[in-house]
UniProtKB/TrEMBL annotation, chains A, B:
One of its GO terms (molecular function) is methylenetetrahydrofolate dehydrogenase (NADP+) activity. It comes from the Bacteria. This is Bifunctional protein FolD. The gene is folD. One of its GO terms (cellular component) is cytosol. NADP(+) binds at G178, R179, S180.
Length: 297, 297
């Protein structure tokens, strides 16, 4: 490769950015149309139940934002607010009531729910067909086995982005940094389902930079600012940054990484907007199925 | 390292072998004692239900072997034989009956069950607390999330072997070759749960030898004779061969690999005996729990 080519690559300002904001907008628009169509055909608008434990300001803000986005897409919200002192049994009961309620099509339990609560038990009270946030064991196994089910929203958003930019994953080495139950682990399973060779890295990984240097696709999902040095990105690699840290900083050193990556998500405006878009889409899908209509029909 | 040392390493014939036969024998002995103890305390012997569809000779042999091993450990068997023509709904019903039967503590559905049957639906009819073969989505997710549950038997046997030989997995790079739902995928999750850095390789992986050369731990679980060249094993690596191919040949070129590995499983006598031992142990554990006694108490 000539110096000229390298320079021209280095100076292109935006043409290797994956535009999550734009893709999410289109997905939300399709979802809004699907919700309207469902209402027209069945007389019922999709309904997402949100469950909030306590009054943590960040959680309150997140839930309100999700409700507002639902409203914008023609999705009704049902809100269940529980005191911070709620017991696991009470929370499980509240979620189970929503699971059994035919007027509720999707359930989102805002987490974390507090250290005294068995969060897993609460998640498992969500009926799989209403698990539009993709947090249940059933949904995880479905992602692992390539079976029908709802995906965790951020992993689902990442896969949508890769697909929208025609990233062929088959045989590629995808390095996932992070192993959380709702992000790292499921996105690795989804990448594996697309025939990528998948490496899970985490806090105990002994030489993270060496593994990143091998990656054709890097998915950073750990929440540590600039953990991944841009100079470790292999030239031509695809970089997906699902980290979101104070000061709009991702898990990847963006400015350096973008000079080497063939495609890279900005922070913000990359993965973030896709998460809520997938939540809305899955809520309408859940409603469509529960109302007995074919999805996409 | 001196030539003398190398020679002495090369000529040691068996001291780097992981003795699955011996470890399995001890595990079965403990399980037999636990089953006898349970019978003494509750008047009930553990019971494993085996479900066989059709009369495939290999499947018939496997089921009979498992029943014999159960009998040897003081575990009762209940056998359900269904014709090859059974429908998915009929098979699901038969499994559901066993799931609801308090006299049955564990359920093993011999697979494959035939191409016309939805095997996943049949597996999912197994109650999680009776899934002693570790095949349900619930069990997979439990392995993925590090939650209580039954493990898939071969992955569980592999982890027992690694533990018995004091292999510290934290920070080690474990390369899993194969991604089946009952072997590759769950063993990767269990290794990740022990803080290994885990890479899943498979048929679409573009440069398997290069990844094997990096591995501190190799788990071969694909069923292709000598797919992994011994010369690709990193000196000092731990090699677990879960492959079992005609002619007692594993997935690893054993003779060459054993000269380089710090520990290696033979085929046969490595992983194989552990699988049935874990099945028996989990059956007694399931019975103990269902009879209301503390496990290991």
């Amino acid at each position: 490769m000539s110096t000229t080519t390298q320079n021209s690559e280095k100076t292109r300002p935006t043409d290797n950015l994956m535009d999550g904001t734009g893709l999410a907008r289109r997905l939300v628009q399709q979802t809004t149309e699907a919700a309207a169509d469902l209402l027209r055909r069945t007389g019922t608008a999709p309904c997402l139940a949100t469950v909030l434990v306590g009054e943590d300001p960040a959680s309150v803000t997140y839930v309100r934002m999700k409700q507002n986005r639902c409203a914008g897409a023609g999705i009704r919200s049902r809100h269940v607010a529980l005191p911070a002192s709620v017991s696991t049994a009470e929370l499980v009961d509240a979620v189970a009531v929503l699971s059994a309620d035919p007027d509720v099509h999707g359930i989102l339990l805002q987490h974390p729910v507090g250290p005294h609560i068995d969060e897993r038990a609460a998640f498992e009270a969500i009926a799989p067909e209403k698990d539009v946030d993709g947090v249940t064991m059933h949904s995880f196994a479905a992602m692992g086995f390539g079976l029908p089910g709802f995906v965790s929203c951020t992993p689902g958003g990442i896969m949508r982005l890769l697909d929208a930019y025609d990233v062929d994953l088959a045989g590629k080495h995808a390095v996932v940094v992070g192993r959380s139950a709702i992000l790292g682990k499921p996105v690795g399973m989804l990448l594996l389902g697309q025939d990528a060779t998948v490496t899970y890295c985490h806090s105990r990984t002994s030489d993270l930079p060496a593994l990143v240097r091998e990656a054709d696709v890097v998915v950073a999902a750990v929440g540590r600012p600039r953990l991944i040095a841009g100079t470790d990105v292999k030239p031509g690699a695809v970089v997906v940054d699902a980290g979101y840290n104070p000061g709009n900083v991702g898990d990847v050193d963006f400015e350096t990484a973008r000079e080497r990556a063939s495609l890279i998500t900005p922070v913000p405006g990359g993965v973030g907007p896709m998460t809520i878009a997938v939540l809305l889409e899955q809520t309408v899908t859940a409603a469509t199925r529960q109302l007995g209509l074919p999805v996409g029909g």
